[in-house]
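Module 6 notes. Inverse folding takes a fixed backbone as the condition and produces residue identities as the prediction. Think of it as a translation problem where the source language is geometry and the target language is the twenty amino acids. Below is one complete input and output pair. Work through it position by position during the lab.
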């Protein structure tokens, strides 16, 4: 996937609250229907959420899971590995979080930290993060050759929009916990993160585990777009497998 993240137009938006709610509810209900079908067919869904700091990953995840059966969902927020996890191969902690058949798992950041933050901050040697592309591709192919659907989202916002969101968090006591000194420090490495992300997208985008780049300046548009693309990807997978799609009319009443 060749994409210039800094050159995304960021002109996609949903203005009307009524339109936003209608689209959101439509795809939330469809995803609920598909979740139940995947459970019956014992097929798992893995969703990867990556993006620039303050791009809206958490909000998108909340809207994605809001109407789903909580018994079949796990959301894993990924941060730096704990000391005991550093004793193993970096993928070990992710293998333990792979869902059982029929379940849905969302990774809020993921193994792609190896070629993003670990690369930029020097936590992985150059030889280590360079070979990680092949390791990740092999891992994702292994998973999706089995009973797993995998899709990956990169949420991109402009540098000006990120500053606006950082300042909003800094000035709002209810949101201040979302902003840290590390966020401001990472912002100073914007160009390095963009370069790493573009190489990641180029080298790890495959039909079996595709990347979807989402313009995130408008949060409402991004949330609906992620839900819609998730539904469409699952439908495409099921159709290819010859599995009839749900009767959506029952969920749109």
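Target side of the pair, the amino acids:
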């Amino acid at each position: 996937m060749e994409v210039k993240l800094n050159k995304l137009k960021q002109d996609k938006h949903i203005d009307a609250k009524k339109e936003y709610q209608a689209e959101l509810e439509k795809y939330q209900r469809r995803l609920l229907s598909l979740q139940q079908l995947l459970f019956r067919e014992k097929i798992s869904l893995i969703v990867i959420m990556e993006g620039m700091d303050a791009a809206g990953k958490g909000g998108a995840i909340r809207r994605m899971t809001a109407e789903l059966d909580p018994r079949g969902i796990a959301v894993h927020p990924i941060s730096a590995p704990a000391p005991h996890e550093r004793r193993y191969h970096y993928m070990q902690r992710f293998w333990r979080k792979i869902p059982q058949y029929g379940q849905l798992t969302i990774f809020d950041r993921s193994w792609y930290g190896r070629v993003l933050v670990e690369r930029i901050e020097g936590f992985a040697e150059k030889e280590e993060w360079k070979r990680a592309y092949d390791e990740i591709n092999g891992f994702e192919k292994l998973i999706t050759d089995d009973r797993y659907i995998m899709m990956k989202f990169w949420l991109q916002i402009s540098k000006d929009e990120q500053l606006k969101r950082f300042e909003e968090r800094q000035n709002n006591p209810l949101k201040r916990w979302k902003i840290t000194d590390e966020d401001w420090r990472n912002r100073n490495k914007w160009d390095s993160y963009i370069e790493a992300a573009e190489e990641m997208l180029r080298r790890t985008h495959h039909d079996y585990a595709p990347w979807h780049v989402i313009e995130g300046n408008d949060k409402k548009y991004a949330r609906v777009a992620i839900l819609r693309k998730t539904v469409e990807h699952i439908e495409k997978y099921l159709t290819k497998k010859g599995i009839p799609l749900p009767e959506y009319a029952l969920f749109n009443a």
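Reference fact for the lab report: Residues 235 and 245 are 7 Å apart (CA to CA).
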